[in-house]
Amino acid sequence: VNDPQTLINARKTDTTRENTEIANESKTAVVTNAMEKELDEKITAVKKDADADERMNKLGAKAGDIYTYAQDTNTKMGEYHVHSEKRFNTLETEMRQNFGKLDNKINQVGKRANAGIASVMAMSNIPYGNTGRFSVGVGVGQYNNGSAIAIGAQAKMTENINIRASTGWNNAENVALGAGIAVDW
């Protein structure tokens, strides 16, 4: 192959082949780079989706935990409400009973007080004589729902000394007693 034209043609052919190969390799490289970039983007998107799925799974698990906690809390609140309602009803019943007892005691005290006042009124209204040495009298008293009867005696011990004693019975089944002495000069 000593012919220069053949050598030039051969070189052109080789150069064209090389250029074609380089062009093909560049296209392949460009295609490969584009595919690699697209593949990286898809992998990144898949990873993001996987991360998002994982986060969603975690959120779902947390939501499930929250839902379970809410159900447990709701159940416990229901149990607490039932317990509180029972306790409240028990306390209300006990309080009503205690107020009823207190009301009865107040009424008893009121009845006894009224009867005591009636006894004092009966004892203070016993009339005594002034002329004799000894005198006996009876008195009655009434105050609201209390009533009483009383009896008393008075004695003139000397010209200047008098003594007196009385007792009263009332409708509260109580007895009142009283005594006194008077000195004149």
* Secondary structure tally, helices: 1
Strand proportion, as a percent range, falls in 15-25%
| Spatial sequence of strands, sheet with the most strands | 1-2-3-4
CATH architectural name of the domain at 106-183: 2-Layer Sandwich
Please provide the count of β strands: 4
Main CATH class of the domain at 106-183: Alpha Beta
**What do we call the CATH homologous superfamily of the domain at 106-183?**
GSPII I/J protein-like
Order of helices and strands: HEEEE
* Cα gyration radius (Å): 60 Å
Question: Judging from the principal axes of the Cα atoms, what is the shape?
Answer: rod-shaped
Oligomer: single chain
Q: Which fold name corresponds to the CATH topology of the domain at 106-183?
A: Pantoate--beta-alanine Ligase, Chain: A,domain 2
The major pleated sheet works out as: 4 strands, antiparallel
Helix content: 55-70%
Low-confidence stretches: none
By secondary-structure content and strand pairing, the structural class works out as alpha+beta
Mean pLDDT: 84
How far from one another are the termini?
A: 184 Å
